[in-house]
Amino acid sequence: MANNLFIDIFKTSKPIIGMVHLKALPGTAAYDEKKGMEWLIDHAVSEAKKLEAGGIDGIQIENQFDKPFCKPEDTGPEIVAAITAASMAIKKAVDIPFGINVHLNGVKQALAIAAAVNAGWVRAFELANAYISNSGLIEAAGPEAVRYRRMLNADDIKIFGDFHVKHGSHFIISDRTIEEQVDDVRTSGGSAVILTSTTTGKAPTVEDAQKIRKATDLPILIGSGFSTANATDLLSAADGAIVGSSLKVDGKIANDTDIERVKELMDIVKSVR
């Protein structure tokens, strides 16, 4: 199942999805009004082109620098409009698949954007259950998301779902096992599960991935800390990865993409395939 899904989307097994981290969008605290949207879109397109030139298999577009993030119900149309504008420009500039992630857990917003720009997937930080984030209580997006997707006539858009996602407290569901939480992603409409560690840039272990492999038949994506140092080991147990920080200059999330880092990682991935 994993291979079939990813081959359909990415035309390869064990795909690597590179991040296009949009600079702070209009209406957020850090938005640069002097540079404006035209500069922001040009920068996003440049990042996407570097990822493609480095051999990446797909791109995920997200509003990474809109911190502090709003909860889904407070994520306004200005954010949706800006991500849509950037996504359309990226779509015209590259030929690889792309998906959408709207912080924080704005899955309906992501689906609306994805339907408008013909993206292949969206990421959901909390498709099932609930957790406490820096923004407060984040509840399950799945029940509304799958109905909204059907209303949009967009069932071809896949939902990649986190469980026990990084940057949050999951004590509220501590009486549910990790295996149960993984299966909750499936029953809530997830097409793939995303395995992260506790923070951005920190990787889960191979043992973690092996444990999740036993709990689900959905494809598994590594969602944090994937790099040249651990790619071979992690891909022995997972079906692909979403990569951000390790592909940036000096490995820092705020920096621009380093095409040489992308090439180095993809050389390793190709040897694993």
Cα gyration radius (Å): 17 Å
Major sheet strand order = 1-2-3-4-7-8-9-10
Classification by helices and strands: alpha/beta
DSSP strand tally: 10
Largest beta-sheet characterization: 8 strands, parallel, barrel
How is the topology of this model organized?
Elements: H1 2-10, E1 16-21, H2 36-53, E2 58-62, H3 77-93, E3 98-101, H4 107-117, E4 121-124, E5 130-133, E6 136-139, H5 142-151, E7 158-162, H6 178-187, E8 192-195, H7 206-215, E9 220-222, H8 231-235, E10 240-243, H9 259-272
Helix pairs in contact: 2-3, 3-4, 4-5, 6-7
List keywords for this structure.
273 residues, 9 helices, 10 strands, 38% helix
Short description:
The chain has helices spanning 2-10, 36-53, 77-93, 107-117, 142-151, 178-187, 206-215, 231-235, 259-272, and strands at residues 16-21, 58-62, 98-101, 121-124, 130-133, 136-139, 158-162, 192-195, 220-222, 240-243.
Explain what the structure shows.
The structure is a single chain. This protein is of the alpha/beta class. 38% of the residues lie in helices and 16% in strands. A hairpin with a 2-residue loop joins β5 and β6. α2 packs across α3 (77-93), α3 (77-93) packs parallel to α4 (107-117) and α6 (178-187) packs across α7 (206-215). The longest helix has 18 residues, at 36-53. It is globular, with a radius of gyration of 17 Å.
